[in-house]
Specification:
The N and C termini lie far apart (41 Å). Helix 1 packs parallel to helix 3, helix 3 crosses helix 9 and helix 5 packs across helix 12. The protein folds into 2 domains: 168 residues, D-Maltodextrin-Binding Protein, domain 2 (3-Layer(aba) Sandwich), CATH 3.40.190; 124 residues, D-Maltodextrin-Binding Protein, domain 2 (3-Layer(aba) Sandwich). The chain is 39% helix and 20% strand. The strands form 2 sheets. A 6-stranded mixed beta sheet has the order 2-1-3-11-4-12, with helices on both faces. The chain is built from 12 helices and 12 strands. By secondary structure, the protein is of the alpha/beta class. The longest helix has 19 residues.
Length: 303
């Protein structure tokens, strides 16, 4: 590792790994969907290694097939930490406000802490805006995704009278693909005509912007952005929080906050993988950032 981040943390907190071992026997990190499970695990392995060194216990990574797998793991106490989307955090909070606490938020290269839901299609489809999507197949990622469902389901109907999220009303068919990567691949392959995913909206389109699912897809060689066209862009959405299970020992929580907060300075390559692209790292956040998302989810989905 480029710096022995975990050892520095242990020294700064004056706590030994043995103290942690007496309180917890392992630490479990959940990873939301967005790309295939093995790629998600690979991106987070460096964080797992840092965590094992910092806490002195085995760190396990979990990459469930859908967002709800991480949500239920946090609610059930089988996952200790995760980087959630805002809607997934809202879902967790609405089911049990004492289950997790938001502690950190990703920072973009310009210092902002927001991102966008991006609607896109293939250039050769002839679709250039949502006006061209009438009667065509439109793809969402996951019902618990902020950019892949919640925000589009609110903002896209505001774009034009008559647009709904029901198949056969404006769109010929509305499909859930299962995740951001699946949506990108489905559009690229022509299986659906258009879809939504997430990106910070900064940098160059041909790079998949600076961070987000499009950037990860470009890095993985899954898509050439020159074959794609942006057809819609949401208002700014607050980045989802890194959350910790509230029942964890306070010293464990403090160490993990310091570890993730210092990840970019310690190992920019690791931070790139964890944050899905270029970033300045993470900064503290509280529940107040997500009150509007909680309200939106409650009104649209219920919980």
């Amino acid at each position: 590792m480029k710096k022995t981040l975990a050892l520095a943390l242990a020294a700064s907190t004056a706590l030994s790994t043995g103290a942690f071992a007496q309180e917890i026997t392992e630490f479990r990190i959940g990873i939301l969907g967005g790309e295939n499970a093995q790629d998600r695990m690979n991106s987070y392995q460096c964080l797992a290694d840092f965590t094992t060194e910092a806490l002195g216990v085995e760190t396990k990574l979990f990459a469930p097939a859908d967002y709800n797998g991480v949500i239920q793991g946090l609610l059930g106490g089988t996952i200790d930490m995760a980087w959630l989307g805002a809607s997934s955090y809202a879902a967790t909070f609405l089911q049990d406000p004492d289950a997790v606490e938001p502690v950190l938020i990703k920072v973009n290269l310009d210092g902002s802490v927001g991102y966008h839901s991006i609607g896109f299609a293939r250039v050769d489809s002839g679709v250039t805006s949502l006006d061209d999507m009438q009667g065509k197949v439109f793809g969402f990622g996951d019902p618990n995704s902020t950019s892949g469902y919640l925000i589009p389901s609110i903002e896209i109907p505001q774009y034009k009278d008559g647009i709904t999220m029901e198949s056969g009303e404006y769109f010929g068919e509305v499909k859930f693909t299962g995740g951001h990567e699946q949506t990108i691949v489905a559009v690229n392959n022509g299986d659906i005509d258009g879809g939504v995913t997430w990106a910070d909206g900064q940098g160059n389109w041909e790079d998949g912007y600076n961070s987000g699912a499009l950037r990860k897809a470009v890095d993985a060689g899954l898509v050439d952005m020159n074959d794609m066209v942006q057809i819609w862009k949401s208002n700014v959405i607050p980045e989802g929080p890194v959350v910790l299970r509230q029942a964890l020992p306070d010293d464990v929580k403090a160490t993990m906050v310091a570890l993730v907060d210092g990840l970019y300075e310690a190992d920019p390559e690791c931070a790139y993988g964890v944050a899905a692209g270029d970033t300045l790292g993470f900064q503290p956040v509280t529940h107040a950032m997500y009150e509007s998302i909680v309200a939106a989810r409650q009104s649209v989905i219920g919980n």
